[in-house]
């Protein structure tokens, strides 16, 4: 017979993971339902957010599973692939039943196409929204595909506001919260949890020559083509180089549009991204809409100010006139670009303000805030 050992005499192996016990008020088993894993070549800010949340919750003692489409990578939390990039939307329900089984909280990450989890999962659910795609559907599906854009837009709006008659939604910025309320989601059901940022470590050298950097997935709504047109107006004034970091379906077309002194790097390592953001004089962000604009904060911790358009998400991560400039049009963007490029003193002041502002956003704080909302979502479903 097994011998009973008093708890006071039990010894934990030194290499065993030391997780603090999960308080009863918090859900122990949490499943994220998302489009991609962070290891997917098409991953971006949304995937980074989910990874930081899943990893942070795991470190706090929760059992976390990510159910996604496409390849599944090995992580400290469990990652399960439900199928391909698009068919996994149809297979998510069966994959959840067969390979996950049950959970205390299902977090549906809504990035355009919905999973409609509240219709088939009867336990507590939480919806995590980076940004509402209202104006992006026509950009993604134009011309003969316009009917698909209309269907996608209506489906997304119904999934966020119509199918979710109860439960909480997490927005990553006030802009996203405002967009959700505009769809008809009551404000009392919306919680805001900002993105965080890593402490980047020692800075590397700033470029002695003008260097301007844009970072992001090369897709339509990022509007890198607009940035290339503006570069033709700015380059004669500032000189220097424009470096485009990232990859995507638009890359070939954009490389054909690019003029002199433009470099496309494709995907880069975190170390190389750190070097480029430290070296850059300015971060340029011409996107039409964002949930938050994570790279703005990543540049800010390296004392690099940003120029962006005054659009949802970016108006939350850029403090206009302090940590960067929010342009109201193409001419305004080009003028700010030239002005800051020619004023080292103003760039330094904005860079320092950006660093101080970014100090408010750290991933551990993001995880704690999300964990509190997760507990609230579970409590709201209890009798």
Automatic annotation (TrEMBL):
Residues 14-25 have a biased composition (Pro residues). InterPro entries: Glyco_trans_1, Glyco_trans_4-like_N, Glycosyltransferase_grp1. Residues 1-26 are annotated as: Disordered. Its EC number is 2.4.-.-. Keywords: Glycosyltransferase, Transferase. The keyword Metal-binding does not apply. Transmembrane segments: none annotated. Residues 206-356 form the Glycosyl transferase family domain. One of its GO terms (molecular function) is glycosyltransferase activity. This is Glycosyltransferase family 4 protein. It comes from Streptomyces fimbriatus.
């Amino acid at each position: 017979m097994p011998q009973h050992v008093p708890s006071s005499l039990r010894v934990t192996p030194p290499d065993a993971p030391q997780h603090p016990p999960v308080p009863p008020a918090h859900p122990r088993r949490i499943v994220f339902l998302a489009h991609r894993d962070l290891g997917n070549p098409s991953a971006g800010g949304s995937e980074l957010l989910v990874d930081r949340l899943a990893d942070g919750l795991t470190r706090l003692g929760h059992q976390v599973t990510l159910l996604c489409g496409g390849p599944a990578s090995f992580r400290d939390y469990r990652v399960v692939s439900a199928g391909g990039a698009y068919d996994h939307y149809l297979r998510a329900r069966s994959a959840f039943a067969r390979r996950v089984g049950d959970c205390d909280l299902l977090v549906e990450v809504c990035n355009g196409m919905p999973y409609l989890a509240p219709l088939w999962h009867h336990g507590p659910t939480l919806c995590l929204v980076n940004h509402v795609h209202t104006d992006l559907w026509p950009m993604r599906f134009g011309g003969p595909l316009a009917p698909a854009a209309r269907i996608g837009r209506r489906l997304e709006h119904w999934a966020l506001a119509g199918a979710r008659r109860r439960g909480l939604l997490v927005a990553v910025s006030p802009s996203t919260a405002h967009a959700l309320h505009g769809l008809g989601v009551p404000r009392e059901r919306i919680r805001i949890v900002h993105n965080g940022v890593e402490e980047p470590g020692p800075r590397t050298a700033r470029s002695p020559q003008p260097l301007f950097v844009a970072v992001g997935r090369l897709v339509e709504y990022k509007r890198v083509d607009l940035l290339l047109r503006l570069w033709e107006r700015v380059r004669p004034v500032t000189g220097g180089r424009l470096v485009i970091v990232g990859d995507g379906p638009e890359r070939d077309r954009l490389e054909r549009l690019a003029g002199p002194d433009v470099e496309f790097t494709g995907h880069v390592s975190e170390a190389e991204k750190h070097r480029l953001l430290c070296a850059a004089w300015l971060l340029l962000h011409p996107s039409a809409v964002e949930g938050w604009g994570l790279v703005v904060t990543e540049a800010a911790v390296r004392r690099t100010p940003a120029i962006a358009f005054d659009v949802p998400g970016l108006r939350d991560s850029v403090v206009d006139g302090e940590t960067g400039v929010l342009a109201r049009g193409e001419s305004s963007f080009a003028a700010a670009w030239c002005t800051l490029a020619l004023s080292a003193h103003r760039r330094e002041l904005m860079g320092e303000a950006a660093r101080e502002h970014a100090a408010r956003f750290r991933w551990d704080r993001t995880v704690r805030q999300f964990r509190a909302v997760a507990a609230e979502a579970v409590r709201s479903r209890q009798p």
